[in-house]
Amino acid sequence: MGRIIRVIMCKIPSEKGQQDFIELYRTMGATAVKDKKPYIVSLTIGVTYPDERSKGFNVVGKTEFKDLDDMKYYEIECEAHQKMKARAHEVGIEDYLLAYHEPAVEVTH
């Protein structure tokens, strides 16, 4: 099994809450380790542009892992991610969607 892309989309009404959530992600990304080494391949998060198709989801994060085992570690055991999740309620998340996949097509230029 190859790389895993994990995407989270959140509804966070206040701009302060959006920025606070982004900061939680920044801290988590800088401190997440497995076997005392960074293991997240890449992490990106940001506020969406206004668009009715986003259906109110206004913060999107994408995290890439080398394989499903690393993503499962992130979800269940990663201390940095657990700390972030414990504080996530403070930012006022109203709803979220989460999905992950192994890329079937990838185009880079």
Automatic annotation (TrEMBL):
Pfam families assigned: Dabb
SMART domains documented for this protein: Dabb
Stress-response A/B barrel domain location: 4-101
Protein name: Stress-response A/B barrel domain-containing protein
